[in-house]
From TrEMBL:
<dbReference type="InterPro" id="IPR016039">
    <property type="entry name" value="Thiolase-like"/>
</dbReference>
<dbReference type="Pfam" id="PF22691">
    <property type="entry name" value="Thiolase_C_1"/>
</dbReference>
<protein>
    <submittedName>
        <fullName>Thiolase</fullName>
    </submittedName>
</protein>
<dbReference type="InterPro" id="IPR002155">
    <property type="entry name" value="Thiolase"/>
</dbReference>
<feature type="domain" description="Thiolase C-terminal">
    <location>
        <begin position="238"/>
        <end position="381"/>
    </location>
</feature>
<dbReference type="InterPro" id="IPR055140">
    <property type="entry name" value="Thiolase_C_2"/>
</dbReference>
Length: 385
């Protein structure tokens, strides 16, 4: 019989970003990981010598945990370099939860870093040859997400304006975040009239290309109570892999979030309606629409209407991507860890002008490759235990 991790038995006690945006020349992804780790440890009052669990992934370093351990000068008892794209870090969180419960480590650090803006996206994440797709010269990943958007529009009548609502709402949240890359207002017309990248997605439907990274520190709930911080408890998580290539996705409008979401909600004993804050991986404007449907916030096909009318913007019914998301805050290639950092900060009440009042429950959902991996994590304050 498999003993699954218990709801609320571990907590996040430290959270930090590395430098973001465009970092100095010759900075490496491991530099940014190390910077974020030190900041996250300082955030919770722990030391590098306390760390005995290390979780890391990046597209620019083949053996990320090994490189980071050497850089930090530590020899972790437990380590994990699972790399399934931008959702890797939700997966790391689930694995750290299990490892801490099993006594394999006591202080786990999850880290990411990327210099994709400095070195160019192509150099940071070179494409593998795919004999079924490469001959058609797709612009990846945008063309893959454009296929999903086109199919959703065809089946459900989703409009370009509804996709644009996602980008406009993200920008409004970003304008409340001093660390966000984008500093200017955005309108639906701005999105629609922007340069086309892969029909129907313009450049404003696509995520930013930035440098950056982050880190989280995870400990047992018992140890968290001994630290001078406000712990954020891990209540649930779920993981799903459905394909690698977009040409092998069974249904372009249904993602693995339909698998990972129920796992996470079931473990947490919660529903979408209970979430005070929702962070969804927004590499493209179609992805939050798909995830809102697959996670159960609305029915399949209703995502376009659901995000319309300012519902997901500041002051709307759903606090979605409150940091500005990958569309307007920061997107250093693999965004999932930064989404979890925002969820943690919202539950700790640290978000200033964008703070969601009395937030007790938050969901952070990660997406990897071309809608290929989906991982969901649910967090809560002590009041939610």
């Amino acid at each position: 019989m498999i003993n699954k991790p218990k709801r609320g038995s571990v907590a996040i006690v430290g959270a930090a970003e590395s430098d973001l945006g465009r970092v100095p020349d010759h900075t490496t992804p491991v530099d940014l990981m190390g910077q974020a780790v030190i900041r996250a440890l300082n955030d919770c009052g722990l030391k590098l010598s306390d760390v005995d669990g290390l979780f890391a992934a990046t597209s620019q370093v083949r053996m990320a945990p090994m490189a980071l351990a050497e850089y930090l000068g530590i020899k972790p008892k437990y380590f994990d370099g699972t790399n399934i794209g931008g959702s890797s870090f939700m997966s790391h969180l689930a694995h750290a939860h299990a490892a801490i419960e099993a006594g394999l480590c006591s202080v786990a650090v999850i880290a990411y870093g990327s210099t994709q803006r400095s070195v160019s996206r192509a150099a940071a994440a070179p494409r593998e040859y795919n004999p079924w797709e490469t001959p058609y010269r797709p612009i990846l990943p945008p063309s893959a997400y454009a296929l999903a958007a086109s199919r959703h529009m065809h089946l459900y009548g989703t409009t370009r304006e509804q996709l644009a609502e996602v980008a406009v709402a993200a920008r409004k949240w970003a304008l409340l975040n001093p660390k966000a890359w984008e500093k200017e207002p955005l309108t639906i017309e701005d999105v629609l009239s922007a340069r086309m990248v892969s029909d129907p997605l313009t450049v404003r439907d696509c995520c930013l290309v930035t440098d950056g990274g982050g880190a989280l520190v995870v400990v047992s709930a018992e140890r968290a109570r001994d630290l001078d911080v406000k712990p954020v408890y891990v209540l649930g998580h779920g993981e799903a892999l459905t394909h690698q290539s977009i040409s092998c996705m069974e249904d372009l409008t249904v993602t693995g979030a339909a698998i990972s979401g129920p796992q996470a909600f079931g473990m947490a004993g919660a529903t979408p309606a209970d979430m005070d804050v929702t962070i969804l991986y927004d590499a493209f404007t179609i992805t939050p629409i798909l995830f809102l449907e697959d996670l159960g916030y609305c029915r399949k096909g209703e995502g376009g209407a659901f995000v319309s009318g300012g519902r997901i913007a500041p002051g709307g019914e759903l606090a979605l991507n409150t940091n500005g998301g990958g569309l307007s805050y920061c997107h250093p290639g693999m965004y999932g860890l930064l989404g979890m950092i925002e969820a943690v900060r919202q539950l700790r009440g640290e978000c200033g002008d964008r703070q969601v009042p009395n937030a007790k429950l938050a969901l952070a959902h990660g997406n990897g490759a071309v809608l290929s991996s989906q991982c969901t994590a649910i967090f809560g304050t002590a009041d939610a235990l």
